[in-house]
Write a structure and sequence with these properties.
The protein is of the alpha/beta class and 190 residues long. It is 46% helix and 15% strand.
Length: 190
């Protein structure tokens, strides 16, 4: 229901939705992302790209989108407070960052059950589910596009990934219980 509602709200009802969340900043590599999306669009004409975030490169990214003739299928959503709903609209998440400290959005996308294709710029801690694929940026936009399409087609999107997230140590409830137990045990032995 959430997926249908947010897709309708964003005008993406019968579209193949590629998603990206990140500040419009050189580190996030939007230039390459737009090239990957252009390849996806050639292979899947009903593809749309949603970009969540703002930043200093917003006008430059918009210019590249216009240069590529993609203005009608790239949606700049700005900053959002309803990311749980936005992830539900996506068929695949593409994250070609040059580097990341952790890349929490990669974990969020997986937790939402969205297949993700990301760069070698992400640390190994982000690889927590079977719907995660890491590629080299040097593999080029065509390989990235093919991998994104393959993952979206072959993996059932929005499958419950809760146990993977818990096992990787990213579950708030499990971490809170661990911390409570840790401090209670320390207090009792002091």
């Amino acid at each position: 229901d959430t997926r249908n509602a947010i897709r309708k709200e964003l005008g993406l009802k019968d579209k193949f939705v590629v998603g990206h969340v990140g500040r419009l900043h050189p580190q996030k590599n939007h230039d390459f992302l737009i090239d990957v999306f252009a390849e996806i669009k050639k292979k899947k004409p009903n593809a749309e790209l949603i970009l969540v975030g703002t930043g200093p490169l917003e006008e430059k990214v918009k210019s590249k989108v216009a240069e590529k003739g993609l203005s009608d299928c790239v949606h700049f959503l700005g900053n959002r407070k309803d990311m749980n709903r936005i992830y539900q609209a996506m068929d695949v998440f593409v994250f070609p960052s040059l580097f990341e400290g952790l890349g929490i959005v990669a974990i969020e996308a997986q937790a939402a059950g969205v297949p993700i294709v990301c760069s070698e710029g992400l640390p190994p801690e982000t690889d927590i589910t079977p719907i995660y694929r890491k590629l080299l940026l040097s593999d080029g936009e065509e390989k990235w596009a093919n991998t994104a399409l393959e993952m979206a087609q072959n993996l059932k999107a929005h499958t419950n990934m809760q146990q993977y997230v818990i096992d990787a140590g990213f579950d708030m409830d499990a971490t809170a219980k661990y911390m409570e137990s840790y401090y209670l045990n320390r207090w009792r032995t002091a």
